[in-house]
Each structure stands twice: as structure tokens, then as C-alpha cells.
Design goal:
By secondary structure, this protein is mainly alpha-helical. The protein is built from 3 helices and no strands.
Length: 80
């Protein structure tokens, strides 16, 4: 199975939608902090949840340029 940013974005969105506090109208271009209203702790907790789900470890330096769900998906794909 080929892992693409699109497939990882879908998994991220599905995981986000499990949380009733997350807006329902999210897309790969949704901004994690601005649109989802995540603070730094929520971002780190969510990244850890995605790491567990996808069996990957995302170094903190890979998160510096992550702004959107798609950015996070691309960072994960680059590590697989």
C-alpha cells in the first residue's frame, strides 16, 4: 500500500472528527491552530495520537512548518 498525503489527511480528519469539539467542516487545508482552535498542548496530544495510529514518530523539528492538516500529512509521509 502506498501512503500518500491525501490518504494520511483522510485518516487525520477522521481522527479529528471523533472529537465532538472539532468543527465538522474541516478539510486538508484547515489550519490546525486557527481553524481548529488547538493550543500547543492540544497539538502535541493530537500529534501523539496520530503517531500511535500510523506507527510513526514525528520529530519536533518536522512540526515547525506544519500549519494545516495537509502539512501534517506531508510531514508524516516524508517519514514513512
Amino acid at each position: 500500500m502506498t501512503t500518500t498525503a491525501e490518504s494520511v489527511s483522510k485518516i487525520i480528519i477522521e481522527t479529528l472528527l471523533e472529537n465532538p469539539r472539532v468543527p465538522r467542516n474541516i478539510s486538508p487545508e484547515s489550519k490546525i491552530i486557527e481553524d481548529l482552535e488547538f493550543d500547543s498542548l492540544a497539538v502535541m496530544n493530537f500529534v501523539m495520537e496520530i503517531e500511535d495510529k500510523l506507527d510513526v514518530s514525528v520529530p519536533l523539528d518536522h512540526l515547525t512548518d506544519v500549519r494545516t492538516i495537509h502539512d501534517l500529512a506531508e510531514a508524516i509521509v516524508s517519514l514513512k
